Amino acid sequence: MQIEHRGARPRLGKDVYVAPNAVIAGDVEIGEGSAVLFGAVLTAEGGPIRIGRNCVVMENAVLRGAPEAPLTLGDNVLVGPRAYLTGCAVGENAFLAAGSTVFNRARVGARAEVRINAVVHLKTRLPADATVPIGWVAVGDPAQILPPGEHEAIWKIQKPLDFPKTVFGVDRPPAREHPRAGLEDARTDRPPREGETIMPEVMRRYARALRRHLQDKAIY
């Protein structure tokens, strides 16, 4: 299904295949010879999506454009089943395996491989020809590639990248060092204090943004 979102419609190049139950919404451009398979979702909610030539987006992958962070794929990129990409740039000939995740403002270099269930974190720059092993995490600029059990090392790099502020525009509660900072109890909508949750404000903003889909129009 193709959907007009906020006045923008998808644009497909020559010989592009889109599966009947894939969804392409808004300012999405797909280069010639590419394919979007069953159940995939490409949604330009906050920013455009640009897909190069001869790319394949496999079953149930989700690609999102983000505010101030367009999602771009170079030519000849494979996005595996169940992958999740948001507001990132992927170089040509890259391989993103099943279940891989690439977050906002990350950059994946040409010919890089992000293997099964691996993560390229927020604002991370993964160089050309790099490999993130199965289940590992790339974080930082330049990227450090760490095993998932290295929680403290990952958090030390991840925290200054400021996921809540970058993605949702909400400040993290102060003076907490643990990765679960601010994910506890919230009782009001005032700015969170130490140890309180940011979720009420995050979800208010996110739900408001997503309600823009109320004006969408199905093209076919």
Question: Which residues sit in consecutive blocks of at least 5 with pLDDT less than 50?
Answer: 178-189
Quote the CATH topology of the largest domain.
Answer: UDP N-Acetylglucosamine Acyltransferase, domain 1
- Strand content range: 25-35%
Radius of gyration: 18 Å
Helix content: 10-25%
For the largest sheet, list the strands in their spatial order.
23-22-19-16-13-10-7-4-1-24
If classified by CATH, what would the architecture of the largest domain be? Answer: 3 Solenoid
CATH superfamily of the largest domain: Hexapeptide repeat proteins
* Total number of beta strands: 24
* Tertiary shape: globular
Count of structural domains: 2
SS-based class: alpha/beta
Main sheet attributes: strand count, strand direction, barrel closure:
10 strands, mixed
Along the chain, the helix and strand elements come as EEEEEEEEEEEEEEEEEEEEEEEHHHE
Distance between the termini: 6 Å
For the record, the CATH class of the largest domain is Mainly Beta
Please, how many helices?
A: 3
Would you mind describing this structure in some detail?
The structure is a single chain. This protein has helices spanning 151-161, 163-168, 199-210, and strands at 2-4, 11-12, 17-18, 23-25, 28-30, 35-36, 41-43, 49-51, 56-57, 62-64, 71-73, 78-79, 84-86, 89-90, 95-96, 101-102, 107-108, 113-114, 119-120, 125-126, 131-132, 137-139, 144-146, 217-218. It is of the alpha/beta class and 220 residues long. It folds into 2 domains: 2-146, Hexapeptide repeat proteins (UDP N-Acetylglucosamine Acyltransferase, domain 1), CATH 2.160.10; 162-218, no CATH class. Strands 23-22-19-16-13-10-7-4-1-24 form a 10-stranded mixed β-sheet, covered by helices on one side. A 7-stranded parallel β-sheet has the order 2-5-8-11-14-17-20, with no helix packed on it. 38% of the residues are buried.
